[in-house]
C-alpha cells in the first residue's frame, strides 16, 4: 500500500476493495490521484511489488494439475503486465499449464471489456458456449458474461463476498481450489 501512503490516502484495505480495478489507471482515478501523477504511482507500485512477490495459493498447483489431467484446456487472461506475470509463472513453474495467455498489453480494451477474453478464446479455438471463465473480481464476471461464457466467481484477498455476489456469477466458490470438485469426475 505504498501508493496509498505516498498520496496520503487513508483506509488502506477497505479503500483498496472499494477502488480496485484491474486497469490500474481506473484505480488511480477512483482514488483521486491526479492524472499527472499516474506514472509516479506506477513507479511506486512496481518498486514495492518487486520487494514482495506474491505467493502461490496452497491449492493452485493441484487445481491446475487436476483440470489438465481431466482434459480441460486452460487459458490465462490477466490485467498484469507480461514481464511481471511471466516471471511469476516461471518462478512457480506454472507456464505450461496455460495453452494461451493474454496480458494487459495484448488488447487496447481492459477488463471488464470482453476483448481480453475474446482474444484468449480465439487463440484457443474455443467455442464460447462451452467456455467457463473463472475470476475473483466483479470485472472478471462482467467480462465473462459479456462473452457468453459460464462465469465462476472465486473468493480471494482481492474482493469482498458482497462485491462478488453483486456481480451475479453463475456460480460462486469459496476459492479456486474448489474447481476440481466442481468439474472433475470422481474416480474409484
List key phrases describing it.
188 residues; mainly alpha; Rossmann fold; 2 domains; three-stranded parallel β-sheet; two-stranded parallel ribbon; 10% strand; globular
Which second-level CATH architecture of the largest domain applies?
3-Layer(aba) Sandwich
Give the percentage of residues in beta strands: 5-15%
Shape: globular
Provide the gyration radius in Å: 17 Å
Helix vs. strand class: mainly alpha
> What is the total number of structural domains?
2
**SS element count, helices:** 10
Q: Helix fraction? A: 40-55%
CATH topology of the largest domain: Rossmann fold
| Average pLDDT metric | 90
CATH class of the largest domain: Alpha Beta
How do the strands line up in the largest sheet? 3-4-5
CATH level-four homologous superfamily name of the largest domain: HAD superfamily/HAD-like
Termini Cα gap: 48 Å
Unreliably modeled segments: none
Number of strands: 5
Order of helices and strands: HHHHHEHEHEHEHEH
Query: Main β-sheet, in a few words?
Result: 3 strands, parallel
Quick recap:
Helix content is 46%, strand content 10%. With 188 residues, it is mainly α.
Structural notes for this entry:
By secondary structure, the protein is mainly alpha-helical. It folds into 2 domains: 2-51, no CATH class; 60-183, HAD superfamily/HAD-like (Rossmann fold), CATH 3.40.50. Helix content is 46%, strand content 10%. The protein is built from 10 helices and 5 strands, in the order H-H-H-H-H-E-H-E-H-E-H-E-H-E-H. It has helices at residues 2-6, 12-19, 24-31, 38-51, 60-69, 82-91, 115-124, 138-147, 161-166, 179-183; strands spanning 75-77, 100-102, 132-135, 150-154, 171-173. A 3-stranded parallel sheet has the order 3-4-5, with helices on one face. Strands 1-2 form a two-stranded parallel ribbon.
Amino acid at each position: 500500500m505504498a501508493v496509498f501512503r505516498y498520496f496520503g490516502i487513508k483506509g488502506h484495505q477497505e479503500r483498496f476493495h472499494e477502488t480496485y480495478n484491474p486497469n490500474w489507471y481506473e484505480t488511480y482515478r477512483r482514488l483521486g490521484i491526479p492524472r499527472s501523477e499516474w506514472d509516479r504511482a506506477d513507479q511506486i507500485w512496481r518498486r514495492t511489488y518487486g520487494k514482495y512477490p506474491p505467493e502461490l495459493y496452497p491449492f493452485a498447483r493441484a487445481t491446475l494439475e487436476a483440470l489438465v489431467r481431466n482434459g480441460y484446456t486452460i487459458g490465462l487472461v490477466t490485467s498484469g503486465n507480461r514481464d511481471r506475470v511471466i516471471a511469476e509463472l516461471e518462478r512457480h513453474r506454472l507456464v505450461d499449464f496455460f495453452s494461451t495467455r493474454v496480458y494487459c498489453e495484448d488488447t487496447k480494451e481492459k477488463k471488464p471489456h470482453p476483448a481480453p477474453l475474446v482474444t484468449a478464446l480465439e487463440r484457443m479455438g474455443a467455442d464460447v458456449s462451452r467456455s467457463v471463465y473463472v475470476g475473483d473480481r466483479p470485472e472478471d464476471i462482467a467480462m465473462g458474461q459479456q462473452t457468453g461464457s459460464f462465469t465462476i466467481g472465486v473468493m480471494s484477498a482481492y474482493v469482498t463476498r458482497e462485491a462478488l455476489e453483486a456481480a451475479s456469477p453463475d456460480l460462486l466458490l469459496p476459492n479456486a481450489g474448489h474447481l476440481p470438485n466442481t468439474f472433475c469426475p470422481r474416480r474409484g
